[in-house]
Amino acid sequence: MRYAEKITHSPAARATAAALLALALGLTASPALAAPPTGAATKTPGTHPAATDTTSTRPTATDTTGTQTAGGPLGRYYNQRLAWGSCRESPDDTVGGDLDKAGVQCADVTVPLDYAAPRGRTITVAISRLKATDTRHRVGAILLNNGGPGGTALESPPYVREAMKEVGSRYDIIGFDPRFVGRSTPLDCGWPVSFTWFSAGAGRAGFDRQVALSKDLAEKCRATNASVLPHVTTRNTARDMDVIRGALGERKISYLGYSYGTYLGTVYTQMFPGRYDRMVLDGAVAPGDYGPRLLKGTVGENDRALAAWAAWAADHHAAYGLGRTRAAVLATIDRVMARAARAPLTIGTAPDVFRVDDTHIPTLLFMGIADDTDRSRASLAEQVSVLAEAAKGRPATPSPEFKEMLRFALSGADSPSGSAQMAIICGDVPAQRDPELYWRDIERIRAAHPVFGPLTENIGPCAFWNAPRENPTRVRHDTPALIVAATGDPRTTYRSSVTLHDQLPSSRLLTLKGANRHAVYGEYGNACVDTKVNRYLATGRLPSKDEVCVK
Prior knowledge:
- By secondary structure, the protein is an alpha/beta fold.
- Helices cover 38% and strands 11% of the residues.
- The protein contains 18 helices and 11 strands.
- The protein has helices spanning 11-21, 75-78, 94-101, 157-164, 204-225, 234-248, 260-271, 299-315, 317-320, 326-342, 361-368, 374-391, 400-410, 415-428, 435-446, 453-456, 494-503, 527-539, and strands spanning 105-112, 122-130, 140-145, 171-176, 253-258, 276-282, 345-347, 354-356, 482-486, 508-513, 547-550.
- It has a 9-stranded mixed β-sheet with strand order 1-2-4-3-5-6-9-10-11, with helices on both faces. The chain has a two-stranded antiparallel ribbon with strand order 7-8.
- Strand 3, helix 4 (157-164) and strand 4 (171-176) form a beta-alpha-beta unit.
- The chain starts with 10 loop residues before the first helix and ends with a strand.
- Pfam families: Abhydrolase_4.
């Protein structure tokens, strides 16, 4: 769940995404060793390789050798001509207008809803392209994914080119909104909330409310989108990526993925050996750690990140009044949560009034601690000070940013985002179905981790979802990827990045020491990390050994 906090690059969009994807994968990589990068990719429409899906458990249109061919049922997708044009969809489409000004073009790629029935219903995947300007040294196309799942990347090429510095001019930078996300064919289950990552609260009553909510959300999705839900999966998004590769006329694609996007990148390399060039996986999640309980196993990292923030807030007591020591700040949070467990806190004034209870507060804290910059820490301190005022029964007026976050979390204002995110996760990996299993896990962890334990172990809609049609992807092929990870990442833990690195012997691990940060390259401002990633993107050569940068 990368909490897609990176990569919605405008401040307003970043605040909203931070509310959604912070949670999801924490939420924010290949065949037998692929051949080393070979330099500039050639663009020869009609000659791209067949779409090999070596680990699929579903029937595919194949020739007698078992390899999908561009001339078979999928040929019309791989050989389609893209109608590049303006990204602006309407006069008030500021995102599209900004992309147009930056020289980005947009197009829709047609893909099958069901790859097992390629002559059936089709959907579209929205993509954007910022073309290489250094055509003499062009490397090829690099696809982007900002995490989530459910995060968009259509808007990202200009920002990624800026992060890539000089090497950016050598790539066609391709943003895309995965199937059923953003400007692609949409999915909306008509939910009353925009995401579902809440805590079980202080007792059984809160957990029972979460069970009822999760069951209701799953039923709403079945009632409104039963025909498409089986096809809203990461494996199908990976298949879409390969169609994008073919439609672009590229023999191979490079890739930059954050958080959940690292899982998508891993899945692509496992399904399509030999179709990738340079792979950067930032804030990686090992496939074995990905599933409906994305936050399980992250409680220690989140406790430490919260404690580090509390120490910062204590140093700024004069500004926020939360306590003069780390312990005092954490005690303030305990008091706020205890008060919210007795009755919801009232935040804001009409018409924007929000009721915040003990199932919501851990989520709000979780959203705020994945970035240890002063700006992010100040934002969380402001939010906690508002909650503390409300806990005292005083008027509590949120900032515009906090108000937007509350609206996103506590209303269905962005139901499509939550619907797509949960459909992807539930469609990928089966969940435990017995609510009592979740409750026992919550009770076991509550004493040691009272703030985040009931969040990381809580139930969600996947417990009531139909079982996935395909088995989860597992790593069977090595991949020479560059994995970037911060030691204090509270979303996709450093341990998970190390696990993926161990599963991919040819990969290299670039560690940022001392940072409580999710998503580093091009986002955190660490010159060491950015320089090393850009060197790899420029040369295609991984470091000879794992490397370390410091905060």
